[in-house]
Amino acid sequence: MSNETLQAIRGMNDILPDEAELWLWFEEVVRDWLASYGYRNIRMPLVEPTGLFKRAIGEVTDIVEKEMYSFEDSLNGDQLTLRPEGTASCVRAVLQHNLLYNAPQRLYYSGPMFRHERPQKGRYRQFHQVGVEALGFTGPDIDAEQILMCARLWKKLGLSDVTLQLNTLGDAEARLRHRAKLIAYFEQNLALLDAEAVRRLHSNPLRILDSKNPAMQAMIEAAPKLMAELDEAALTHFAAVQAILTQHGVAFEINPRLVRGLDYYNRTVFEWVTTRLGAQGTICAGGRYDGLLEQIGGKAAPAMGFAMGIERLLVLLQEAGMPLPKPKIDVYVVHQGELAANLAFVLAEQLRDLGLRVILHCGGGSFKSQMKKADASGAKLAAVIGDDEAAVNEVSLKPMQGGAQIRVSVQNIGATINKLIKQE
Ligand code: ATP
Ligand code: MG
Q1: Domain 331-415 has CATH 3.40.50.800
Q2: Which of 61, 263, 280 to mutate to test the pocket of ligand 1 (most atoms within 8 A of CB)?
Q3: For range 184-213, the mean pLDDT
Q4: How far apart are CA 33 and CA 159, in angstroms?
Q5: Which pTM was predicted?
Q6: 123 lines ligand 1 (CB under 6 A)
Q7: By CB distance 3.0 to 4.6 Å, which of 12, 197, 236, 375 could disulfide with 126?
Q8: Which ligand 1 atom minimizes the distance to the CA of 125?
Q9: Parallel, antiparallel, or unpaired: how do β-strands 266-273 and 282-288 relate?
């Protein structure tokens, strides 16, 4: 086997221990934040029947047309797909287990998603999302709450350079009226459309508005606006969302071109964007999807959700100067000699009983080389056991940041250690 085959798949990254410290920290912040809004965790499989995504996301979308990792189960011929996003699976699980039978649900999940895209900074083939879904809520209050939630998270994370873009996609009838007008308009401007736009003209004309082709921008700018077609109920809903945001001091920009990449959205849609990540500037995106449950074969129920890209958020944090968190080790146990080795083992277990984080030196070596490892581990204290100490069941505690070494008996070590560690 050549070395080449021993590489991870392009666009699928290893997250090495130093960086994983940042992920763990982030995941903890996110868990607390979600709990503070009453959201509960749900965990779905990474693989689903391909049909689920086709039905939920829509056949004429970037994801379904060209980004899905789909394959045939070689044992039974089933068509399967590595999940490209979480909403479809989450809704499938909610329907399958009848979670909405007597109460609405606030749910979240996190984990890897898979899309066959061109890898670049902030865009990977295996990437990670935190997804948040509220199911069974009709009113604009939940829309606003989810957006306020995001604002709170950015604050918790210390992110300042993110701005909120907001739009409404209205309801089905308004979208049908708009769609008809759009098709007519694009047909009048056929000569200006690129190949992709021509292909989508009848299948998904709304997506043409999302095109990044510079040559089409002026024509797109002048296209018929959905806003003009919205009915009273959708307008009232949108106004209520904006009123709550304004009341809470959350600034937003209304972007009528914000249509989102997925078919299932209606009414409120939003994106949190930054200018610091180039073309990968969207760190969080979501909206209402009242039609999705019925669309995938369930009983109709309103829903609202969003997902954020963890890689993009972490890059942003690091670009803002956030250092990688250090591993938290309390004690590194250094020892030499057979008697000392036995005592070191006992001590390490005893300290863990006290709730401390302990590395027991393994593999021998001189005191000097062991102390170097203790230093590199970031431990607050070294617990040193030589023959002298072992003979009388004692240990020398040495603060790694300097300070006097203290010799204590192993039996009474708890209080001394706690004191030394708190001093740090
Ligand atoms: P984009 O327009 O950047 O392709 P999208 O509209 O396809 O994004 P969503 O499906 O809304 O993205 O996913 C929500 C979030 O997940 C995005 O805002 C982004 O932060 C993140 N994300 C999406 N695709 C990727 C990817 N390939 N690599 C890393 N993060 C991603
Ligand atoms: Mg995309």
Answers
A1: yes
A2: 280
A3: 91
A4: 15
A5: 0.90
A6: yes
A7: 12
A8: 27
A9: antiparallel
